[in-house]
Structures are given as C-alpha cells and as structure tokens.
Write a structure and sequence with these properties.
Number of helices: 4
Number of strands: 3
Shape: elongated
Strand order of the largest sheet: 1-2-3
C-alpha cells in the first residue's frame, strides 16, 4: 500500500493577486485576476524525504532558494486561478512524494548465455564460408 501524499498547509502558502498578461481588453488592465503562489520548501511541514526530492527535482518553478513559484492566469476569475495554482502545487508535491522502485540488476540465465554464444558461433561460420572459392 502506498503512503498518503502529503498536503501543503494553507498557512504555508503565500498567494498574491497580480495583473494577468496578454489579451483581455479593459478587464486585464483594471482587475488583478492572475495569482502568484509562493511556497517555501525548507520552511514547510512536509516530510524531509519529500523536501529533498522536491529540491533535486530540477523543476523550473523551484528557484535557488528552495521556493516554489507558480503563476496561474489561465482563468478569468481570481478564485479559479487560485485553485489552479494550489492544484499545480499539489501535483508537484505528489510527483516528489512518489518513491521510485529501486532497480535490481538481473543476471542472464545460463541457457540464455549459451544460446547467445551458439548464435555468435553460427554467425561466424556463415561468414567464414563467404571466402573466395579455391579450386
């Protein structure tokens, strides 16, 4: 059974309303509908293993200081952009919470090694018969 995915605490998130970029007419210039979500990984209540995996994830949304910065501006309402940013943070944490299975190298079986060598020998014999025909 998989362990539960840790949830980011609401009080650890810093959500700022900003003006969205791009087209949208007068509404874009007047209303702050986009959202900047900042989440400090080091100061969070996440388990240490998840914090380490988040920091080595190499995601462009994580800056050098270990702060996740997510910008959401795809929706017209502030609340929908806020929820979108929180959902994307949850997905990022869920990706880091997933522990990959350790790979155990396997050895080829003795019969597969034998078949491989026999195939190579047979191939070598075929190539040896390609020589020039002597009288």
């Amino acid at each position: 059974m998989m362990p539960p995915v840790p949830e980011p605490a609401e009080h650890e998130m810093q959500i700022l309303a900003i003006r969205a970029q791009g087209a949208g007419g007068q509404n874009v210039n007047k209303v702050s509908n986009a959202v900047h979500l900042r989440y400090d990984i080091g100061a969070s209540s996440l388990p240490d293993a998840v914090k380490e995996r988040l920091l080595v994830l190499g995601d462009q949304r994580i800056n050098r200081d270990g702060v996740v910065v997510i910008k959401a501006q795809s929706h017209r309402s502030l609340e929908m952009n806020r929820q979108d940013a929180i959902d994307r943070l949850r997905e990022l944490i869920a990706a880091a919470a997933h522990v990959p299975k350790t790979r155990r190298p396997t050895k080829p079986t003795r019969s597969s090694q034998r078949r491989r060598v026999e195939g190579k020998v047979q191939r070598g014999q075929v190539k040896a018969l390609r020589g020039r025909v002597s009288e």
